[in-house]
Write a structure and sequence with these properties.
2 domains, four-stranded antiparallel sheet, SIAE, SGNH_hydro_sf, 10 helices, eleven-stranded mixed sheet
Length: about 475
């Protein structure tokens, strides 16, 4: 009896040893994943300390090796193939093999920010996404789109893993949960250049830019309290808290190899003074680029849409948009998408405008033009360049018109002021050799012009690609 018990115990210990030896992977590295094509893709996980891990792939005979450290962590890289729609596999072996299947090589983009990026195709309560049924009905025509949602989790310390799973964008039941902006971006890219697109959705509704900054940046460059109890007392709404969303929701993806970052955030920073927002956004981009370890990753972001905020005619939202425009000028390899035309008049009090397709497509046009060699696309919105005043008329020159403005007269959204700093609605007409001619019978000696520089102001000026003119002001009042 004792002999039988002895051997039974040995067998149990052997099974336990095998179980302990089995390599563990982060949830991001799992069936259905998309890996960044033509790159050194990082792969990582955990195993028994000191144990060797061999990584083999279905597209080459090469073997990548790693050794688990004292903490059990290991990391290696594999050369990924050119993009394709044929499923691949990756096997991790530390004595007991684990295989990840249904892997595609393509383009991987992060969908970061707050609720307008998080907003799924099915919409939020009382916040629909325009064109939902049509989009879902034709989703099976786009089999190369995959997405994974990182759970919105707070943590005082950086997390290395997240409970998540990759889903197929051509699954009509699953696609409703995909970020609407992200999906339309992916659909446009995969249609244009015929590559699979993977979306990693790491975002949190209502978050501030400070929500994503790390402890070092927050302690050195802000006055945000990093004490957990002080955070709870200072921010009744948890989505406004600094540090914790970056630690819990973004940190788990930092080892993944990606093509770039899409970012839609800013509403919760309306009211920030001076250049604080643009400087902190620049700091965040530098932090993410450092942590992804892939050089100057593309950073494409979205200007916040018209919304009432403290009042439709106020300028808190306009000043935040101005800060976003400034950020696009001081962050290398970045691009900003204008959305001034993407709110309906009845969406005055709607923080989540329904036209997400155009947002995703405009991000895609920028990516396709800049990074995928797609010539012929108009991807930049017009912006203010200069102004001169002659008598009672201001002559405004604009950049990125692509040879013309969308209309010659009945241009809405311009205002003009004299030295009294009182702005009045203005007439605006366009002539290609003069620019936009802005005037008002109520301002005989104009000194400043503004375009849609209010919380909720819908203009109609656009370039030949239909992209709207960025809101601007020529004054510094």
């Amino acid at each position: 009896m004792m002999r039988k018990l002895f051997f039974s115990t040995l067998a149990l210990l052997a099974v336990m040893s095998d179980a302990d030896a089995k390599v563990r992977l982060p949830h991001l590295i799992s069936d259905g994943m998309v890996i960044q094509q033509n790159s050194d893709v990082r792969l990582w996980g955990w195993a028994e300390p000191g144990r060797n891990v061999n990584v083999t792939v279905s597209w080459t005979d090469a073997v990548s090796k790693a050794k688990a450290g004292k903490d059990g962590r290991w990391e290696t890289t594999v050369k990924s193939p050119k993009s394709g729609f044929t499923p691949l596999s990756i096997t991790f072996d530390d004595g007991e093999p684990v295989t990840v299947s249904d892997v595609l090589a393509g383009e991987v983009w992060v969908c970061a920010g707050q609720s307008n990026m998080e907003m799924p195709l099915r919409g939020f309560g009382a916040c629909p996404v325009e064109g939902y049924n049509e989009t879902v009905a034709e989703a099976p025509n786009h089999p190369g789109i995959r997405f994974v949602k990182i759970p919105s989790v707070m943590s005082m310390t950086p997390l290395d893993d997240a409970q998540c799973e990759w889903k197929h964008g051509d699954d009509m039941n699953a696609v409703a949960e995909c970020s609407a902006v992200g999906y339309y971006f992916a659909r446009t890219v995969t249609s244009a250049v015929n590559v699979p697109v993977g979306l990693i959705m790491a975002n949190k509704g209502g978050s501030r830019v400070e929500s994503w900054l790390d402890r070092d940046n927050l302690s050195r460059h802000t006055d945000e309290s990093l004490d957990s109890m002080a955070m709870v007392k200072g921010f009744a709404w948890d989505f406004l808290r600094p540090l914790v969303w970056g630690n819990g929701t973004f940190h788990p993806i930092l080892n993944y190899s990606v093509a770039g970052i899409l970012y839609y955030q800013g509403c919760s920073n309306v009211g920030d003074p001076g250049n604080r927002y643009s400087e902190r956004l620049k700091m965040l981009v530098e932090q993410w680029r450092r942590d992804f370890r892939q050089g100057e990753l593309p950073f494409l972001f979205v200007q916040i849409s018209p919304y009432i905020y403290g009042g439709a005619d106020g300028d808190g939202g306009a000043r935040l948009r101005e800060q976003q425009f400034r950020a696009s000028r001081i962050i290398p390899n970045s691009g900003l998408v204008c959305t001034n035309d993407l709110a309906y008049p009845y969406e005055l009090k709607q923080i989540h405008p329904c036209r997400k397709r155009q947002v995703g497509e405009r991000l895609a046009y920028m990516a396709l033009s800049r990074y995928y060699g797609c010539g012929g696309l108009i991807c930049e919105s017009p912006s203010y360049a200069s102004m001169r005043v002659s008598n009672d008329t201001c002559y405004v020159k604009l950049d990125n018109l692509y040879d013309g403005l969308s209309r010659l007269q009945d241009i809405e959204g311009f205002e003009v002021a004299g030295e009294d700093r009182v702005f009045y609605p203005a007439r605006a007409e366009y002539e290609w050799h003069k620019g936009v001619m802005v005037s008002s019978d109520r301002v005989k000696h104009p000194v400043a012009v503004r375009y849609c520089f209010r919380n909720f102001a819908l203009g109609n000026a656009a370039n030949l690609g239909g992209l709207p003119l960025f809101p601007f002001r020529t004054d510094e009042w």
